[in-house]
């Protein structure tokens, strides 16, 4: 990975400013959770207010001295800002503070680098890191601006910095090509599911809302679960059997966060496409979070950005065991399930969730009583293969009387294939 991380937690000074020029402010508590999730050891939190960021150092001279005093007092190894810093601001701050400086985007990238487990996830993280680093190459390396010279070093006349940039561009191009191949493979898998008429249900939600715990509860999978931000990075797909509907595919996806860096959204397009192509989104919400409404709005904003805003949603309010409330389903005016209240940790209410999913996915289901002649055995076998037959009786004349329930798309496909009459 691009970042070198020490084995133990680094002592970190955290910086957060309330800027009058910002419409949406970052949450200081969430920032501290991000630092802890990255393995940092917050030793001090410097807060302040400004009308607008200082163009050179983001903070003013007085606040810069306060940060320097905290760094020296606690012997901090890194200063982290709960804001996006420009490359020049990072360089100037490092020069003044005599230690490493990391902004919010760099911190999230580092967490993603720790969490990536699959080959695809590692490629996506490396791409985002390289794109972020390409603007920061000159940081602390002014000697690289000189052209190479000396015995064995005379070459094409480009500076070391230009060489590094060229190598970065080549690596970015290589990773982009490999991710496009992964995207084509994912598209192939999605098309196969669509041809088989298997509905896809994607779990989405704010980071640490309990998506993976719920995923494991529903599918008996063993996805990594931890009480930390971005515990899940790589998407996981599992088949889930629903009564009266049949098989569906459940997808666990990466959690969203306020002001998710655009580079990450771009790099994780292949992963997020599982969400875009879903038939139903389960929006998992931490019912105990104080900023619950804001988190829901942030998730909706990311869904709109990736083109998934119009997909039907079922809200799942999780961690009900901490509120000591009873599980329930809330219905809208038309009688459709709108919200399910449950606890993924204890399993309470998960049966209600399956009922609600069955109701929503099964809205386009056909229920029919069929009479099939003996020569229509091929159609009968196809109905059994789809798991559509709920009851069957034989008449004295050899005619089969079937009660069937199946998706409308399967019904239309079978009718198109069947030459004889279906009563």
Automatic annotation (TrEMBL):
SUPFAM superfamilies: EF-G C-terminal domain-like, P-loop containing nucleoside triphosphate hydrolases
CC cofactor: Mg(2+)
GO terms of molecular function: GTP binding; GTPase activity; guanosine tetraphosphate binding; metal ion binding; ribosome binding
Gene3D superfamilies named in the record: 6.10.250.2860, GTPase HflX, N-terminal domain, P-loop containing nucleotide triphosphate hydrolases
Keyword annotations from UniProtKB, A to Z: Cytoplasm, GTP-binding, Magnesium, Metal-binding, Nucleotide-binding
Main localization (coarse): cytoplasm
Location of this chain's protein in the cell: Cytoplasm
Superkingdom, natural source: Bacteria
The Hflx-type G domain, residue ranges: 199-365
HAMAP family on file: GTPase_HflX
Role played: GTPase that associates with the 50S ribosomal subunit and may have a role during protein synthesis or ribosome biogenesis.
Family: Belongs to the TRAFAC class OBG-HflX-like GTPase superfamily. HflX GTPase family.
UniProt protein name: GTPase HflX
Species name: Kineobactrum salinum
């Amino acid at each position: 990975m691009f970042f070198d991380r020490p084995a133990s937690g680094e002592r970190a000074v955290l910086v957060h400013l309330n800027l009058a020029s910002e419409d949406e402010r970052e949450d200081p508590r969430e920032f501290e959770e991000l630092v802890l999730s990255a393995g940092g050891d917050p030793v001090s939190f410097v807060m302040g207010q400004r009308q607008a960021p200082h163009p050179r150092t983001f903070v003013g001279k007085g606040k810069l001295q306060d940060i320097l005093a905290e760094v020296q007092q606690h012997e901090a190894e890194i200063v982290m800002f709960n804001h996006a810093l420009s490359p020049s601001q990072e360089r100037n701050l490092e020069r003044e503070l005599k230690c490493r400086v990391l902004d919010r985007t760099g911190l999230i990238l580092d967490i993603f680098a720790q969490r990536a487990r699959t080959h695809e996830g590692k490629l996506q993280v490396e791409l985002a890191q390289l794109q972020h680093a390409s603007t920061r190459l000159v940081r602390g390396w002014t000697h690289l601006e000189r052209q190479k010279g000396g015995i064995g070093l005379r070459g094409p006349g480009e500076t070391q910095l230009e060489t590094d940039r060229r190598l970065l561009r080549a690596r970015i191009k290589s990773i982009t090509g490999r991710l496009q191949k992964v995207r084509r493979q994912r598209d192939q898998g999605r098309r196969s599911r669509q041809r088989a008429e298997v509905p896809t249900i994607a779990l989405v939600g704010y980071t640490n809302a309990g998506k993976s715990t719920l995923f494991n509860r529903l599918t008996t999978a063993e996805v990594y679960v931890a009480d930390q931000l971005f515990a899940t990075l790589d998407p996981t797909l599992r088949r889930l059997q629903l009564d009266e509907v049949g098989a569906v595919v459940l997808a666990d996806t990466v959690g969203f966060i306020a002001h998710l860096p655009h580079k990450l959204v771009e790099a994780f397009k292949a992963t997020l496409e599982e969400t875009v192509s879903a038939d139903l989104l389960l929006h998992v919400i931490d019912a105990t979070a104080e900023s619950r409404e804001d988190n829901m709005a942030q998730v909706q904003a990311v869904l709109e950005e990736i083109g998934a805003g119009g997909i039907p949603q079922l809200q799942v309010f999780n961690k009900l065991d901490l509120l000591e409330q009873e599980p329930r389903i809330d219905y809208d005016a038309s009688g459709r399930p709108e919200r399910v209240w449950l606890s993924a940790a204890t399993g309470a209410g998960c049966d209600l969730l399956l009922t609600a999913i069955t109701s929503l996915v099964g809205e386009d289901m056909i229920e029919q009583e069929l009479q099939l002649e003996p020569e229509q055995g091929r159609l009968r076998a196809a109905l059994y293969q789809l798991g559509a037959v709920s009851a069957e009786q034989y008449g004295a004349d050899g005619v089969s009387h079937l009660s069937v329930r199946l998706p409308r798309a399967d019904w239309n496909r079978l009718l198109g294939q069947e030459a004889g009459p279906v009563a």
